[in-house]
């Protein structure tokens, strides 16, 4: 591409709040055949809310919320924010927590009044050797509704579930449709529950879902796609997306995302709108075709 064409292209992008960091990035975008989308904060608003609270017989709903909120107070995860907002709405007490630990892609743990508690997904519960038979059907039902079930437990048993749900961004569905019309394979990559992800897959008509991926494994999924001959553009917002954005042939960061994601990407979408990712690729094709 000529320098002038590239300048025109990046200038056009800037009009849409699309920050293209280099001439090379604009040239690369046109080769994309597979678009990988992170779920939380990329396809969804990333502002989840608590929708349901179910506690076991040994505890009340409000006690369950107190335990969850006290633990999540020390976490920076979007799910934690949802739990804290609900605690605030219900004026639930926040207890001091000792020995707090965040387990990436799984949840959090800590002690209150000498008892150790956990809040997280089924993987965390499984890893701690706890039985969640009682809550399995309920968790599946919530996930089928597109909600993320959060298990709360002590060291002996699961005490209940708090369900959290995030809303789709208004343009996500249209963006997926446009990518498909351009002949691209659209893949959703998420650490969330497989059933929760599949509910969203159906709503959006996404071809492939890769779920329950640990934060440190997201980039390996990109490598796997590339090994299969794909030219991958990835869109993400989180700290856990940064290595995958770097690994992708083209990394696209959501402008409202974390600094690390923005630094790791070739392109930044200042309006945080997935339709601008469509525009990025269209722009690249237009620029490159004018040159040939
Ligand atoms: P995503 O790819 O959707 O951004 P993450 O890798 O950050 O997801 O988290 C994956 C899953 O790990 C979440 O869906 C949740 O089940 C669990 N998890 C992570 N952090 C927390 C937390 N602070 N509290 C409860 N669960 C958590
Ligand atoms: Mg995210």
TrEMBL record:
Organism domain of life: Bacteria
Subcellular location: Cell membrane; Endomembrane system
Family from the record: Belongs to the cation transport ATPase (P-type) (TC 3.A.3) family. Type IB subfamily.
Protein name: P-type Cu(2+) transporter
Natural source organism: Paludibacter propionicigenes (strain DSM 17365 / JCM 13257 / WB4)
Region of the whole protein represented: 408 to 699 of 762
């Amino acid at each position: 591409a000529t320098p002038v064409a590239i300048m025109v292209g990046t200038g056009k992008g800037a009009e849409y709040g699309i920050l293209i960091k280099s001439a090379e990035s604009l040239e690369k975008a046109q080769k994309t055949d597979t678009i990988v989308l992170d779920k939380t904060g990329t396809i969804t608003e990333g502002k989840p809310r608590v929708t349901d609270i179910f506690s076991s017989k040994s505890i009340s709903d409000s006690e369950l919320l107190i335990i969850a909120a006290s633990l999540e107070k020390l976490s920076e995860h979007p799910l934690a924010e949802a739990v804290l907002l609900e605690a605030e709405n219900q004026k639930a007490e926040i207890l001091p927590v000792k020995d707090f630990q965040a387990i990436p892609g799984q949840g959090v743990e800590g002690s209150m009044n000498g008892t150790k508690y956990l809040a997280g997904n089924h993987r965390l519960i499984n890893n701690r050797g706890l039985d969640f038979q009682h809550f399995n059907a309920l968790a599946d039902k919530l996930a089928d509704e597109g909600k993320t079930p959060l298990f709360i437990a002590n060291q002996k048993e699961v005490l209940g579930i708090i369900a959290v749900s995030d809303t789709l961004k208004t343009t996500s569905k249209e963006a997926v449709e446009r990518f498909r019309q351009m002949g691209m394979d659209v893949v959703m990559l998420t650490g969330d529950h497989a059933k929760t992800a599949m509910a969203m897959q159906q709503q959006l008509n996404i071809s492939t879902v890769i779920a329950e991926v640990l934060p440190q494994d997201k980039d390996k999924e990109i490598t796997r796609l590339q090994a299969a001959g794909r030219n991958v553009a990835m869109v993400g917002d989180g700290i856990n997306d940064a290595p995958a954005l770097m690994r992708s042939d083209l990394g696209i960061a959501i402008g409202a995302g974390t600094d690390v994601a923005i630094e790791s990407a070739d392109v930044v979408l200042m309006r945080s709108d997935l339709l601008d990712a469509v525009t990025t690729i269209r722009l690249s094709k237009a620029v490159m075709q004018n040159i040939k």
